[in-house]
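[audit] Reproducing an earlier prediction to check determinism. Same input, same settings, fresh worker. If the tokens differ from the archived copy the diff job will pick it up downstream; this log only records the rerun itself.
[audit] input (68 residues):
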Amino acid sequence: MNDETFTLSIRKLLKTVGVGSQREIEQAVAQAIAARTISGSETFPATVRLHIPGLQLDVNFDGEIRLE
């Protein structure tokens, strides 16, 4: 195993997930506010799932998204 390749691939995946997830959440909130289905002061529970079948890894990370 090449540790540098391994570490860089993990970082690339996490960056892609982080940037993409933030963009999707921001768009969903903007659309919900525009549609007046939320007021903009809510807190939403959230779960992120990490699933790597080849490693038999399936773990959830729980948190929350606060708008205020």
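[audit] rerun output stored. Observation attached for the diff report: The mean pLDDT is 98.
[audit] end
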